[in-house]
Design goal:
single chain, 430 residues, mainly beta, 4-stranded antiparallel beta sheet, 29 strands
């Protein structure tokens, strides 16, 4: 739980940590008994090298300028430590990156351990960064739902509590279980507009990059970049096309009509599944022609700006295999080139929650998977791949199969039952 009694003045001074062991690149240039002297800090960016840094932020790369700096064999700030590359240490400069961790004890001092064993203190101050958001558990907002935001630096002060702003300017506070890295809140009534979600602390404000949808828009399939909703509303496809177009079904928990069901035809899986092809009832293929391609609705020029999103509902315990999303070029597979040799080669996003939670379910609710295109960096077997280019976004395969990071040689008894819905390709907006 976040400690509400941390004083604002202490939080403003939370700082930098650096600790390392090395042999200086040039031992003979400095008297080993001379105290290190720090003159100032500056950026490492050549375009900003003339600027001086007054306050240090967590996760910031800086150059510490002074004299006798190669006498330092260890640096510590507060109670945190990091390692440095000895090649970045000279008598007059040390380059290092401040840690991202928040210290448990704030002293606002650098402690230099010297070659002769002496510890020299240097007073400094650092500001905490603005909040950062890594993931939001739901891409839509439905009154009464609990949403989890994961990231870092969700730090309240006595004067400025954490504030979450939802589309339409509606603000909510995180619940009491929230931490520096996780916020949870209950969606209030009155969310009728799609838009941005932001988190604000005393140290800044950050937006989640992707639009958050009102639940009413999701129900009507009125969402950005929608490709498949398994209802055929508003131009979205009801099924794909290829050997396995996906099987629309009515989920046991309401979302927005039908969803695609992966259940292996109700059959259980157990034992050694190495090399097993689980295609029927576990795969969706969209293999278009060049002239008939719904993915061209979302023209992509820069991979870094886009993500695939979909909602997922896991009803039965998940103990093996990865859920793989695989964009494909027309060269890899298409309506005129139908084959399965591409499966183990293309760059994929592998969702594998069972690795850390061996009997994973979504606990009776739908969650949103946000999959930045920059994170499609593995094959379905878990090997490294080259990543995506815009030409790879012509077709799409979604499968629940393949080893990924897991072990398929001894699979515990498992009866798959996974729904997904509202497959879309979305662009960063914030």
């Amino acid at each position: 739980m976040i400690k509400r009694d941390i004083k604002t003045v202490l939080l403003l001074l939370v700082g930098l940590v650096t600790s390392f062991t090395f042999v200086a690149c040039d031992d003979d240039e400095t008297d080993s008994n001379a105290d290190p002297v720090v003159r100032y800090f500056r950026p490492t960016d050549a375009n900003k090298a003339d600027s001086m840094i007054v306050n240090l932020s967590l996760g910031q790369t800086v150059a510490m300028i002074g004299e006798n700096l190669d006498n330092i064999v260890g640096i510590k700030f507060n109670d945190q430590e990091v390692a440095l590359n000895p090649c970045y240490v000279t008598p007059t400069a040390i380059i290092f990156t401040t840690p991202v961790a928040i210290p448990g004890e704030v002293t606002n001092k650098l402690y230099f351990t010297c070659k002769n064993g002496k510890v020299v203190e240097y007073a400094t101050e650092t500001l905490l960064p603005e909040p950062s958001i890594d993931n939001v558990s739901k891409g839509y907002l439905k009154a009464g739902d609990v949403v989890t935001i994961k990231g870092n630096y969700f730090i309240p002060t006595e004067d400025t509590p954490i504030e979450i702003t939802l589309p339409g300017g509606i603000t909510v506070s995180p619940d009491a279980s929230s931490t520096y890295t996780t916020l949870t809140f209950t969606v209030p009534e009155g969310i009728t507009k799609s838009g941005s979600l932001s988190v604000e602390s005393a140290f800044g404000i950050t937006n989640w990059p992707y639009e958050i949808f009102a639940y009413s828009d999701l129900q009507e399939s009125n969402v950005e970049g929608l490709l498949f909703d398994f209802d055929g509303k508003n131009g979205a496809m009801e099924t794909a096309n290829g050997w396995r177009p996906g099987y629309p079904a009515d989920p046991s928990v309401e979302l927005s009509g039908k969803a695609c069901l992966f259940d292996n035809g109700g059959a259980e899986l157990e034992g050694d599944l190495t090399g097993t092809w689980l295609e029927d009832n576990m795969t969706l293929n969209y293999w278009p022609s060049a002239d008939d391609n719904i993915l061209t609705r979302v023209p992509v020029s820069n991979i870094e700006d886009y993500a695939y999103q979909l909602e997922i509902f896991v009803e039965n315990p998940w103990t093996a295999m990865c859920f793989a999303v695989q964009p494909t070029s027309l060269d890899a597979v298409s309506a005129s080139n139908m084959q399965n040799k591409y499966y183990n080669k293309v760059s994929s996003y592998l969702y594998e929650p069972y690795i850390s939670n061996p009997e994973f379910t979504t606990e009776g609710q739908w969650i949103t998977l946000t999959m930045p295109l920059t994170e499609f960096t593995r094959t379905i077997e878990g090997k490294s791949s080259e990543g995506l280019s815009p030409s790879d976004l012509a077709g799409l395969t979604i499968r629940w199969a393949g080893a990924g990071s897991g072990d398929l040689t001894k699979v515990a008894k498992m009866q798959p039952k996974l729904y997904f819905d509202n497959v879309r390709l979305v662009k960063k907006k914030y």
